[in-house]
Known about the structure:
This is Acetylornithine aminotransferase 2. The chain has twelve helices and 17 strands.
Amino acid sequence: MTKAVQSQTADLLAAAEQSVLFTAKRPNVVMERGEGMQLWDTEGKSYLDFIGGWAVTSLGHSPAVLRDALMKQSGELVHASPGFYNKPMIEFSQLLTDISGFDKVFFANSGAEANESAVKLARKHGALHLGGAYEIITLTNSFHGRTLAMMSATGKAQWDTLFEPKVPGFIHVPINDFDACFAAISNKTCAIMLELVQGEGGVNAVDSAYLQAIRKACDVYGIMLIVDEIQTGLARTGKLFAFQHYDIQPDVLTLGKGIGGGYPLSAMLTTNKFDLFVQGDQGGTYNGAPLAMAVGLAVVQEILRLGLAEQAAAVGSYAINKLQELSRTYPISNIRGKGLLFAFDVPDGTAQPLVAQCMEDGLLINAPKPATIRFMPPLIATKSDIDEMIGLLQKAMTGIGLSAS
Ligand SMILES: Cc1ncc(COP(=O)(O)O)c(C=O)c1O
């Protein structure tokens, strides 16, 4: 590494401090380039990426299909107007309905925005069919996004008193406690909204019997079941959709992150039964715009062509086995997850130092909680990427003194 490169990074970091509004502590690196499973910073250091752009870069970094779709579509039509259909929008909505069992798609730009659309649709259903019911039951420890309404929907204790007053109408109940959920249902309830594997909450999956009981209760009381698959969606959990692990069909599904492969894009899918919006209820300048649609179509087609759901299942269970082997020598416990969304616990307070040491050693992982390490790599990850990750993890654990008791 030359002095010039070092000083370029220092200058960039100083400029960032001056001009980028603080919202998050970021390490002192500037990311510059990505390819496949690797990221490089401005000093030329490479990182094996097991954060995957926060469960986003499903095809890895800068995949050719995404670049080609952007090039082709930007040469034809970047943006017409939200008032017009465009060809990739129609093709992409047909593809998503074909693979999911839903009938209709509304496109948006972020996960939070797709979830907002789901909540609007639920309240519309409440207004039309449930005597004005508007309440939505969600889970404690859930995460649904950062708009004001999604902060209310999210069950994060640290947000309880942030940005008051909260958007009303959200009730939180603990995961896998059907009695608590049932007790929260009233004539004001229009929907239940769930992540099937809580991602930001530390990788906690719902139980099958619990989810099936919720589906039944929704059917009996005419309540809409919304499943937030912004993080689990499209192939990450080893099936195209996490709900396919549970033998249920939601009424509304939200997707984001991985369906754009890095391009901002999200979607809300529903059935003909809940095709309830009328002119003016929902929309947005960029929703369904050609560039995003062409990218999403290309990314999803590639996920299907490469069979990445099956690959995520196989590589994910290989990773779990390797972590179990590691747990014989290192203090890691509660290894859990589905496909390429997995986690383990470490002694309290050691997760963040471990993340920092891994980064120093060239591995990117995430600590959603002070005692939890989470992995959400690109779906192209192979068994040899897992072996490399395990080697780096082992080195970092030894480096911070986290070794066998
Ligand atoms: C389950 C879930 N829902 C919603 C969101 C919000 O998505 P976005 O940050 O794109 O608004 C996230 C983001 O991490 C998520 O994991």
